[in-house]
Amino acid sequence: MMNSSRRICVVLLGAALLPLAGCSRHTKKEQFYMIATNTAVPYWKMAAAGFAAAAAQYGVSVDTRGPAGVNPQGEVDEFKAMVARKPAGILVSVADSKLMAPEIDAAIAAGIPVITIDSDSPESKRLYFIGTNNREAGRLGGRRLAAQLNGKGNVVFFTNPGQPNLEERLKGYQDIFATSPGIKVVEVFDIKADPGTALDKAAEYLARTGPAKIDGFVCLDSRSGSNVAEAFKRRNATDRTLIAMDADSDTLALVGDGTIDSTISQKPYTMGFLGLKALDEIYHYPVKSLGSDFALDPYSPFPAFIDTGVALIDRTNLDAVMKKQAAANQ
């Protein structure tokens, strides 16, 4: 018979081993991929950092892939190549849903969990979406611009038409402008996946005078803001309002010097971090059929959407944001 002191020792030893047992499900052989729309931009480097941080906690392997520049077909090709490796799961931001949706469906059919982040493909069989409520991001920017213009003026947009998240942002701005009849959208300019084109076009817009004067400039993507800002600086345009997207260091510096009025900040790090943890959970605790219609299932194990949030950054809160970024980069 085991005496009381030995029983206590066994119980304590078992309690000590429980955390180790809980971690034993993870191995470096578990490979997860994140497919980004443009790996060259700071936004996706931040998302990749979140993805890698969660992987380090779990002890699994991750890799962020995708074209170094907006290239929807190139992104699809990268996605297909990673599916062929039969990974434990994939996060993907969708540049073109018509191209990507069939490939997502094929991955799901092959038993590979797929979650969309940043830009969704709701017509696909992806399990759910983690990211920004992009329509609300547009409304946030729209309210700011309407206030800065006192409800009256001509506005232009810079975007990549057809990219789902950017289309939703545009709708959000339009929602707000519908209640401000004095604001007129003059043009939605297609930057054709090259933010550099925004510089020349912004210069054209700034040259307009009289009733054709452009009062508000909105960048729906993360990179054209700094290019439009350069056009502002060259012309010393201080009587116009520029609203950008995202919180890379260049954009924040331009908010600081007043060239950019404000920018709408997202949480790409959080998207990557939560995305890895979600995929890991699905991999270790698989559902019966990944291809089920979870959107209509009241007993679905998955949400439809996890909102990672947005914030408007201007000169009033810029210092606080920059301090947090500096601390994170130490």
What does this structure look like?
The structure is a single chain. A 6-stranded parallel sheet has the order 2-1-3-4-5-11, sandwiched between helices. It has a 6-stranded mixed sheet with strand order 7-6-8-9-10-12, with helices on both faces. The chain contains 11 helices and 12 strands. It is an alpha/beta fold. The relative contact order is 0.13. About 6% of the residues have low confidence. It has 2 domains: 148 residues, 3-Layer(aba) Sandwich (Rossmann fold), CATH 3.40.50; 132 residues, Response regulator (Rossmann fold). 45% of the residues lie in helices and 17% in strands.
Radius of gyration: 23 Å
Helical content band:
40-55%
Question: What is the CATH level 1 assignment of the largest domain?
Answer: Alpha Beta
Would you list the SSEs in sequence order as H and E? HEHEHEHEEHEHEHEHEHEHEEH
**Integer count of domains:** 2
Beta-strand content = 15-25%
Runs with pLDDT <50, length 5+? 4-23
Number of helices: 11
Biggest sheet, spatial arrangement of strands: 2-1-3-4-5-11
Structural class per helix/strand content? alpha/beta
Record field, number of beta strands:
12
CATH superfamily of the largest domain: Response regulator
Biggest beta sheet summary: 6 strands, parallel
Q: Could you report the average pLDDT, rounded to the nearest whole number?
A: 92
CATH fold category name of the largest domain: Rossmann fold
Alpha-carbon distance between the termini? 56 Å
**CATH architecture classification name of the largest domain:** 3-Layer(aba) Sandwich
How would you describe the shape?
elongated
